[in-house]
Amino acid sequence: MKGLRKLLLVLGVVLLATGVAQAAGGEAASGESHYDWTNLGFRLANFAIFIAIIYYAAGKKLIAFFGGRRKGIELELNDLETRKTDAKKQLGDVEKRIADLENERKAILAEYQAQGEALKAAIISKAEVSAKQIVEQAKKSAENEVKYAKDAMREEMADLIVEATEKLLKERLDGKEQEKLIDKYLTKVVLN
Length: 192
Description:
This protein is mostly helical and 192 residues long. The chain has helices at residues 2-30, 37-99, 101-172, 175-191.
């Protein structure tokens, strides 16, 4: 409301000054000293009535429009300031990260090297365990083979001894002595 009054006052002063300037200019050019003040008064009254009609018809809407526009501009400026601050902050963060990029690279490389060393140690440990298991299995297999070979040799030797003994007994024993020996052992088996 105060803004509209100031606007009307400024317009009135401007029109009045324009009228005075026109009157002064017209007097010098035409040589007349007479100016039509009534015409100027009617024009000013007509202008004032026109402004009053506009004010009463759409004054509140104009004030709301210009006030809303003003608030919108203020909000937009505040938003721009906030965005500018955020952008500066983000720029600072990016500059920091760029500056720390070499340190980050070194840290990542160190981490991967540590992981690689740990993986290498785990692989070596697993390989050593596997090698020990293979050696143990080889020893057991060798022991089993030796045992199998010994058993086979004993069996073969026993067969050879039995054959040799049988052959020797056949040569030394005749039919009667063989019957005596069989009867003797059968008697022992039956009595026991």
